[in-house]
C-alpha cells in the first residue's frame, strides 16, 4: 500500500500468468499466508505467541533487576513507587494502543508519533498485546482481510461495468 492511498495494491493486466486485481498485503512474519492459512500459519502463530510472551517475561525480570538497583541505591520510597506506577501506566496504554492498532489504521500519524516514546517505555504491554493477538489471529489479519475483500469487491464491480478490461 502506498502512504497516500489506504487501499491494497493492485496489479495491471495479467502478464505471464500473474493474477489481475488486488493482491493481499503482507503481514510481518506471515507474508500472505494469512489469506488461506497455509505454509505453517498455525504453527507460526503459536510460535510468535510463545516467543512474545517469553520476551515479555524476560523483560519483567530485567525491570525487576532495575528496581532492585533503585532499592540498593536507596533513592527512596517515592521514587520506587513512581517508577512502578510509570511502567504500569505506560504498559497499559501501550497494550491498548497496540491492540487497537491491529483493528484499524491510524487516523492521525502525528498522534501516533507522539505516543511512540510512551509505547517504548510500556513495551511489555505491547508484547503482551502481540502475544494475545497471535492466539486469535495473525496480528492485523482482520484489518487486512477486510481491506482485501473490499478491494476485491470493488475490482469485480469495475470489471463487470467495463467488460473490455478483461
Q: Main sheet: which strands, in order across? A: 1-2
Name the helicity range: 55-70%
Poorly predicted regions are 1-8, 10-15
Largest sheet: 2 strands, antiparallel
End-to-end C-alpha gap = 24 Å
Total strands: 2
Rg from Cα: 22 Å
Taken in chain order, the helices and strands follow as EEHHHHHH
Overall geometric form: elongated
In round numbers, the mean pLDDT is 84
Strand content: under 5%
**Tally of alpha and pi helices:** 6
Structural class: mainly alpha
Helices, strands, pairings?
Elements: E1 10-11, E2 21-22, H1 41-73, H2 77-101, H3 109-114, H4 116-121, H5 123-136, H6 141-161
Antiparallel strand pairs: 1-2
Helix pairs in contact: 1-5, 2-5
Characterise the protein shown here.
The protein has 166 residues and is mainly alpha-helical. The protein has a domain at 38-148. It is 63% helix and 2% strand. It contains six helices and two strands, in the order ββαααααα. It has a two-stranded antiparallel ribbon. The longest helix has 33 residues, at 41-73. The radius of gyration is 22 Å and the shape is elongated. The chain starts with 9 loop residues before the first strand and ends in a 5-residue tail after the last helix. Mean pLDDT is 84; it is low at 1-8 and 10-15.
Amino acid at each position: 500500500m502506498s502512504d497516500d492511498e489506504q487501499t491494497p495494491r493492485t496489479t495491471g493486466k495479467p502478464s505471464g500468468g500473474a493474477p489481475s486485481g488486488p493482491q493481499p498485503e503482507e503481514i510481518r512474519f506471515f507474508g500472505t499466508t494469512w489469506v488461506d492459512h497455509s505454509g505453517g500459519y498455525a504453527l507460526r502463530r503459536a510460535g510468535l505467541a510463545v516467543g512474545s510472551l517469553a520476551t515479555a517475561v524476560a523483560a519483567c525480570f530485567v525491570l525487576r533487576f532495575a528496581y532492585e538497583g533503585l532499592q540498593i541505591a536507596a533513592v527512596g520510597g517515592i521514587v520506587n513507587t513512581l517508577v512502578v506506577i510509570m511502567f504500569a501506566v505506560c504498559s497499559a496504554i501501550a497494550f491498548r494502543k497496540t491492540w487497537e492498532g491491529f483493528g484499524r489504521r491510524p487516523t492521525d500519524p502525528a498522534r501516533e508519533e507522539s505516543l511512540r516514546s510512551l509505547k517504548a517505555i510500556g513495551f511489555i504491554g505491547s508484547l503482551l498485546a502481540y502475544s494475545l493477538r497471535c492466539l486469535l489471529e495473525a496480528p492485523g489479519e482482520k484489518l487486512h482481510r477486510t481491506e482485501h475483500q473490499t478491494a476485491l469487491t470493488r475490482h469485480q464491480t469495475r470489471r463487470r461495468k467495463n467488460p473490455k478490461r478483461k
